[in-house]
C-alpha cells in the first residue's frame, strides 16, 4: 500500500492485519473470550441508521467542541492504550505529537512506554490526560495520580473495569506478553505484597484488592483535576461514580478486551445519559471507526468519543504522521457527516438524527 491508499481508518486496520507481527496483532486486534463483544462494538455502530435533516444553516459549521473548559478540534480523544513502543520506536512521543498537531487530547496509559514526566516535557503543546490502573498498593495509586497532575496532565481517567485480566486466548496462542517497556511509569513501586490464605489464583490476581467505591472516591477528593471513571456500562454504576466525585464517565467495555458477551458500549450509552441527565460529561469508546460513528455517539448522548485500535494501526503504519493523518481523516469525516445530517455544531446533534422507523 502507498500513502495514497490510506483513505479511511479501515485502510490502516487492513494494513496492520496484513503486516504486523503475529503477537502484536493478537494483542491489538484481539478481544476477550470468543471476541463476541469486540465484534459487536463494531456491528452496533453499523446497525444504527442516521436520519438526516436538510437545508439548515451550516455556515458556522465546525466539529470543534470543548471538555472541562478546554478546546478540542473534534469530539474525539485518543483512548489510553499500553506500550506504544510496540508499534513505533518513538512510542508515545509520536502519538502525543500527532495529538498536539491535530488538537486532540490524548489519554496516556499507566502502561505507556514513556514516563509521563518525560512525555509532558517533550510535547508541551499536547493536551495530555493520564489513565490510572490501580496499583497493588493504594498509596502507589495515589502517587501515580499526583505524579501525572504534577507533570501537567489535565485530567485523570480511572479504569474501573479490569480488576483482573480478561481471558485473552489470541494473545496466549501467539505467546504475547507485554514487554518490560510497559513498566516505565511503575518502576518506583513495590511489587505486590504476598497474599495470605487459600484464595483462588484469579482473586489473588486482583490488581488492588482494596480498591472499592470509597477508595475511588478518595482519588477524586484528592485530585485537583477532573477524574473520569472509565469502563462503566450500568446506569446505577454511573450514578455511584458521580456520587463518588467522578467529573465524567467513559462508557466502555474496554474494546471487548476484558469481559466477553457484555453489551456494545454504544448500546449502553443512552440509559447512562438518561440516568445522569445533561451536564455531566459522558464519553464512549469501542468500535468508533467513521465520522458517522462519532455523530451517532453524540446523538445517543455522548459528549465525545475515544479512539483505540485505529490509533495503534496508524502508529504502526507511519508513526507520528500516520496518527496525525488518521485523526485528521476522522475529523474531516465527522464534519462531513455533520453537514450531511444538518448539524452545524456538535451541540446540534441529538437523538432525532437516529432513524427510529422500520429497519
Ligand atoms: C487498550 N485499552 C486500554 N484501556 C485502558 O484503560 N488502559 C490501557 O492501558 C489500555 N490498553 C489497551 C491496549 C490495547 C492494545 C487496546 C486495543 C486497548 C482499551 C482502550 O482504552 C479502549 O477502551 C478501546 O480500545 C476502545 O475500543 P476500540 O476503539 O479499540 O474499538
TrEMBL record:
<dbReference type="Pfam" id="PF01070">
    <property type="entry name" value="FMN_dh"/>
</dbReference>
<feature type="binding site">
    <location>
        <position position="230"/>
    </location>
    <ligand>
        <name>FMN</name>
    </ligand>
</feature>
<dbReference type="GO" id="GO:0010181">
    <property type="term" value="F:FMN binding"/>
</dbReference>
<feature type="binding site">
    <location>
        <position position="109"/>
    </location>
    <ligand>
        <name>FMN</name>
    </ligand>
</feature>
<dbReference type="InterPro" id="IPR013785">
    <property type="entry name" value="Aldolase_TIM"/>
</dbReference>
<feature type="domain" description="FMN hydroxy acid dehydrogenase">
    <location>
        <begin position="1"/>
        <end position="359"/>
    </location>
</feature>
<feature type="binding site">
    <location>
        <begin position="285"/>
        <end position="289"/>
    </location>
    <ligand>
        <name>FMN</name>
    </ligand>
</feature>
<feature type="binding site">
    <location>
        <position position="254"/>
    </location>
    <ligand>
        <name>glyoxylate</name>
    </ligand>
</feature>
<feature type="binding site">
    <location>
        <position position="257"/>
    </location>
    <ligand>
        <name>glyoxylate</name>
    </ligand>
</feature>
<feature type="binding site">
    <location>
        <position position="133"/>
    </location>
    <ligand>
        <name>glyoxylate</name>
    </ligand>
</feature>
<comment type="similarity">
    <text>Belongs to the FMN-dependent alpha-hydroxy acid dehydrogenase family.</text>
</comment>
<protein>
    <submittedName>
        <fullName>Glycolate oxidase</fullName>
    </submittedName>
</protein>
<keyword id="KW-0288">FMN</keyword>
<feature type="binding site">
    <location>
        <position position="131"/>
    </location>
    <ligand>
        <name>FMN</name>
    </ligand>
</feature>
<keyword id="KW-0560">Oxidoreductase</keyword>
<feature type="binding site">
    <location>
        <position position="252"/>
    </location>
    <ligand>
        <name>FMN</name>
    </ligand>
</feature>
<keyword id="KW-0285">Flavoprotein</keyword>
<feature type="binding site">
    <location>
        <begin position="80"/>
        <end position="82"/>
    </location>
    <ligand>
        <name>FMN</name>
    </ligand>
</feature>
<dbReference type="InterPro" id="IPR012133">
    <property type="entry name" value="Alpha-hydoxy_acid_DH_FMN"/>
</dbReference>
<dbReference type="InterPro" id="IPR000262">
    <property type="entry name" value="FMN-dep_DH"/>
</dbReference>
<dbReference type="GO" id="GO:0016491">
    <property type="term" value="F:oxidoreductase activity"/>
</dbReference>
<feature type="active site" description="Proton acceptor">
    <location>
        <position position="254"/>
    </location>
</feature>
<feature type="binding site">
    <location>
        <position position="159"/>
    </location>
    <ligand>
        <name>FMN</name>
    </ligand>
</feature>
<feature type="binding site">
    <location>
        <position position="168"/>
    </location>
    <ligand>
        <name>glyoxylate</name>
    </ligand>
</feature>
<feature type="binding site">
    <location>
        <begin position="308"/>
        <end position="309"/>
    </location>
    <ligand>
        <name>FMN</name>
    </ligand>
</feature>
<dbReference type="InterPro" id="IPR037396">
    <property type="entry name" value="FMN_HAD"/>
</dbReference>
